[in-house]
Task: inverse folding
DNA sequence: GATACTATTACTCATTTGTATAACTATCAA
DNA sequence: TTGATAGTTATACAAATGAGTAATAGTATC
């Protein structure tokens, strides 16, 4: 008398991994990083716990992979505009700000994921490294945009000055993003985008952005 | 033949509670919120697990209390300047920014604590409420300062405009604070303070702050 | 349609964790 | 000194957790 096995479907490696990562994200969003247990992840992904281990050697490696996907997804959603090159530098900058401060980049779940992972910055070396990289990448995007805008408006600044502006602009956008993610209902539509654009404009000392 | 009991000292309620809260902070800093187990907290506080329960009904209530202490400590460290009233509004603002962007307010452990707690914003109702309150308080401090500066410089702006500026200034300082906490070694001494002051000045459209 | 491969399930195990409760003792007041 | 109080320890327990292993069955290939 053998108990029947749960029927299953064999999925491709890529699909399974991304399913498991998505499930991990759901866990974290629902109950914080502590709620992301192997069993819950497996449950949400409609799979048994053993399979999680088959794809991810460790819990840490599952979390790291999830962090990586989370960040690169956001980056991708916030910066594809930069490739569009027939726009003016100012227009690009505006779009960049707008993308960063509206959905899907700016939404509660993204903050929860980001906060959960970065809170482990001193505990999980992999996350330390990935965070540093993501931060510098984003800041560099700001720096490139600022430089282009200055070229366009015919102004000249030394690199040191520009780096400082990039740090400030980055901080401003990050700050607005956090405020917006955490309390969507506290702001009117596009209020944060407009604030972001006008503040960046002021920081850079431009008449118009 | 009875095994000897561990000797102990009876502490006042206030002292014990604050010890336990400090121990909770240490746990979180070392290994994230998941590392804050009752046993580890008790261990660090030099106490047995049972005592934790004696002072905190729940793990949630321990975490909530720790969050409250964490936030009010930071707020207190960042805003005592506001009481000093014989300073000019601009000077107050500068001090406010400086306090926010230097130790002890700006230091890695504070970010870790803050991120750990806010990552639970959707999971623990107590934290939701306390966060919202802390955020609005800090933003209000910004708003008051901005208003005073404008009075001092003889400019007049409607409330809506001022609220917007407060949101932006708040975001900027938060963003710089996060960057500084997460990567102290990436910035030179006072670099962030100077960036903060000059950026706020620009956002507010002032010639000098 | 039979075979081989491996993705997937099922099960196990030692630890950890939150919570609960009873026993003990430091401390203070009389 | 004595007794009472409550802060503190010791111990227990069920549930959850990360990790490991063997058996099974989808599925592609021939």
Result:
């Amino acid at each position: 008398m053998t108990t029947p096995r749960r029927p299953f479907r064999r999925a491709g490696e890529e699909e399974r991994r991304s399913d498991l990562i998505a499930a991990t994200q759901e866990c974290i969003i629902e109950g914080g990083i502590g709620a992301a247990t192997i069993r819950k992840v497996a449950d949400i992904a409609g799979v048994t716990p053993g399979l999680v281990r088959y794809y991810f050697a460790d819990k840490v490696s599952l979390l790291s992979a999830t962090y990586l996907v989370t960040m690169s997804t956001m980056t991708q959603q916030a910066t594809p505009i930069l490739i569009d090159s027939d726009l003016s530098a100012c227009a690009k900058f505006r779009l960049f700000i707008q993308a960063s401060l509206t959905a899907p980049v700016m939404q509660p779940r993204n903050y929860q994921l980001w906060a959960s992972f970065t809170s482990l910055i001193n505990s999980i070396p992999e996350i330390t490294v990935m965070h540093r990289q993501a931060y510098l990448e984003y800041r560099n995007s700001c720096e490139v945009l600022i430089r282009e805008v200055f070229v366009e408006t015919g102004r000249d600044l030394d690199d040191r000055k520009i780096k400082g502006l990039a740090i400030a602009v980055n901080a401003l956008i990050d700050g607005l993003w956090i405020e917006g993610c955490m309390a969507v209902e506290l702001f009117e539509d596009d209020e944060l985008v407009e604030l972001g654009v006008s503040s960046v404009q002021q920081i850079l000392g431009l008449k118009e952005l």
In short: The two ends of chain B are 75 Å apart (CA to CA). Chain B touches chain A through 46 residues (CB under 8 Å). Residues 125-152 of chain B form the longest helix (28 residues).
